[in-house]
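Entry details:
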Amino acid sequence: MLDLIRTTVVKRWWLWVLAVLLIIGQVFVFLPEILGSDLPQTIGILFRILIVTLVLALALAYWRQVAWTAVDMAHDRWWLLELAVVLLVGVLVLLRPDPFQRIVVFLSDGIVVTIGITMISFVLVAFVGLIGGMARLAKNPLIHGAASIYVEVIRGIPLLVQLLFLYFAFPQILDAIGGVLLPIVPPVGQWFVDLRPDPFWTAVAGITICYGAYMTEIFRAGIQSISKGQMEAARSLGMSYIQAMRHVILPQAIRVILPPVGNEFVTLLKDSSLVSVVAVADMTRRGREFMASTYLSLETWSMVALLYLIMTLFAARIVSYIEKRSAYVN
């Protein structure tokens, strides 16, 4: 991925111009929100702007490949189910704009938040899983033991409980730390006392910690599925352990773990609805707010369910396509 970005930036200078224009346009759109936010929220907004810019720039740079990929994916008949659900939502909005159109408009910002939390969390989960998987296979007993304890403890606590702990209980821990440091280092102690986690990043942290434990086991199993002779052969050629992992073991392991990783992504997308309990205005929370103001329970939750179904079906089809392409390459 990094090689793709590096090659694209070097050979296609106009992407710099496009990226700058995209960033300026998004900053202009989100300027009122940026000015009214504190530092963590501003960093989160800027991070989302950079992610959107990167995706759009790469899609425009490789639009031919994107088009051929879309044509290839069209042969999957399960896209008909996705199309049927989209058409159903469209029919409901056209035939009964009140309340279904109102619901969709009301949920639109929640959809953006849901997708943002899912994408950011999944990137962090994959990174934690990679580091944790390698730590689980480490020969150092301290590293192996710490990784094993992390996996066993986190997998034994429900995600909802972890989110509630981070949002409601963790600030009390920060207050206690600040109280201890306040007489010793007043500025640092006061910083801990005043620190209040942002709901969005608290949700991302909770999902990352929870799903990172499951992803750790997926990476561990994938790495162990590769024959030990592969590592021995790479080391005999003069490669270091890191080089052997990067160039020999991990490329093969990734093809093995693609199906479970894809399933984790779809599950993460659905479980992102739990972040509504920590004041994150995702699609579920927005649906609850609309229902509370209109008392239209059936219409509201039917539309929320259909919108979640559209996103999960789309994600599942993308994962299925990547798996088939990987099998074809193999």
The domain at 76-329 is CATH 1.10.3720.10 (MetI-like fold).
